[in-house]
Amino acid sequence: MKHPQEGQRLELECMPYNRDTGIYWIHLDKDWNLHFIVSSTPVPRNTFQGNKRTSPQFEARWTGNSYRLAVKNFTTQDEGIYFCTSNINQVLHFSSGQPAFFPVATTAAPTTSAATTPSSQATKKDIWHSRDPAEHITHTAITRSSQDTTKDNSQQGPHAGTSHNNIPSFYCKMVMWVNLVCACLLLLTAITITITHCQRPSSP
After folding, report:
1. What is the C-alpha separation between 77 and 74, in angstroms, rounded?
2. 6: closest CA among 74, 59, 69?
3. pLDDT for the residue 50
4. Which of 62, 63, 39, 35 shows the shortest CA–CA distance to 52?
5. What percent of the chain has pLDDT over 70?
6. Of residues 7, 199, 203, the one with CA closest to residue 102
7. pLDDT digits over 57-90, tens only?
8. Residues in Cβ contact with 65 at an 8 Å cutoff, skipping those fewer than 6 apart
9. Where are the alpha helices (DSSP H) in 130-201?
């Protein structure tokens, strides 16, 4: 692909299958329209559009075995793809297309993100160093205290908190024994009263 500048001269080359056959240059513009430019007969003679021998826009000439086309002043209307064709044994052969367009304008890649990356890193660093040391120490102390408490609880084993769980059981046993003792006392009192009543002498 060729990238001529505005107003620049552009030269294209066509290698013919046989110089004794007719050669034609055709232009396919950006709107996909075909335009005849020039033809050359076996007798070296150029015929441009309108059956003219010359053209204010194009030049055509033989150089050795190649047939060259020159665009004198390249403009927007000349952008497109250029083909040369040859008629051999009543068969029309097309060459590979030769694109010719203005260079595409490129813009520089933005560097904002790259420039701000060190700044953002520095900001994060400053924020970290600007933290209150007391706050950092307090947070560390709380963390260590929490870890120590967890460690102590884990070292107490599965019997930790057993004394608290045994208190209700102790009260239940105490109440049961008190009730048993009271029952025994009542039974003993009843037996004593019965014996005393039986030993009392009967009246005459």
Report:
1. 8
2. 74
3. 87
4. 39
5. 61
6. 7
7. 999 988 877 889 999 999 999 999 999 998 888 8
8. 15, 16, 19
9. 133-155, 162-199
| CA–CA distance, 101 with 107 (Å, rounded to integer) | 18
Name the pLDDT band for 200 (thresholds 50, 70, 90): low
Percent of all residues in the chain with a pLDDT value above 90, rounded to a whole number: 25
Instruction: Check if the beta carbon of residue 100 is closer than 8 Å to that of residue 4.
Output: yes
Burial 82-121 (b: 16+ CB within 10 A, else e): bbbbbeeeeeeeebeebebeeeeeeeeeeeeeeeeeeeee
Q: Determine phi and psi for 54, rounding to 5 degrees.
A: -135, 165
DSSP-assigned beta bridge partners for residue 40: 23, 46
* Sequence-separated (6 or more) residues with CB below 8 Å from residue 72: 9, 56, 57, 58, 59
Q: Which of 92, 64, 79, 71 is nearest to 28 (CA)?
A: 79
Model confidence at 133, pLDDT cuts 50, 70, 90, reads: very low
